[in-house]
Amino acid sequence: MFSIQFALIRCLILKRALVTVASVIAAVIIIVVALIFLRVWRIPFFQVEVLGISHSAVHWIGWIGTLYIAFATPIYPIIKRKYFHLLEKTLSIHVTGNLLAVLLVSIHFAHQVTRPLSSYPDLGTGIVLYVAMIMLSATGLILISGIGRKFYRQIRFLHPAFAITFYTVIVMHILEDLIIPSIFT
User: Fold this and answer.
1) 11 or 35, which is more confident
2) Which pTM was predicted?
3) Which of 35, 101, 125, 131 could form a disulfide linkage to 40, CB 3.0–4.6 angstroms apart?
4) Which domains are delineated in the chain?
5) HSE-up (13 A, CA, CB side) for residue 145
């Protein structure tokens, strides 16, 4: 009897801590993006070459965040179903890691959007990708915080739907940036 109560109390404490950490990271994302939009803080422009591909440091920051989300997100449902005893740790890593990756992608996106007109990028699929990622994160935050209990079933449906949208658009975004320009040059 006591072990069940202890487990429930422990689970509640861990969930509150996770919601707090997630809220802090979400606040940091908002503050960092606002500082970039207000041009108070920016990462200086310099090229970094990785595997023969040269991009700005901010572009690589976006790649790191996107790749983390793309590979870490599908691992969570697999572990959740096969290794239920690891659910608490896995959920913490899933939420915290993905929100930190959203921070990296947000830095990239904010830098892209605030570039001068002379070098303004074609945002194309980038905007759709960013919106899908933000909606994926928002529905995840709503699910773990319990804010949308009334609409749990709808939000539970939307969260993986935004993940599918994210994966579809990321493929289009990569094709748009890597393959299509080389066809026209």
Assistant:
1) 35
2) 0.88
3) 35
4) 2-184 (1.20.1420)
5) 16
The encoded tokens of residue 111 equal 């830098």
Q: Which amino acid is at 184?
A: F
Confidence of residue 14 (pLDDT cuts 50, 70, 90): confident
The structure tokens listed for 115 are 């570039």
What distance lies between CA 156 and its chain's CA centroid?
A: 17
Task: Indicate the angle between helix axes 57-72 and 152-174, nearest 10 degrees.
Answer: 130
Counting residues of the chain whose pLDDT is more than 90, the rounded percentage is 58
pLDDT tens for each residue of 67-100: 999 999 999 989 888 888 888 889 999 999 999 9
Bridge partners of 55, per DSSP, are 48
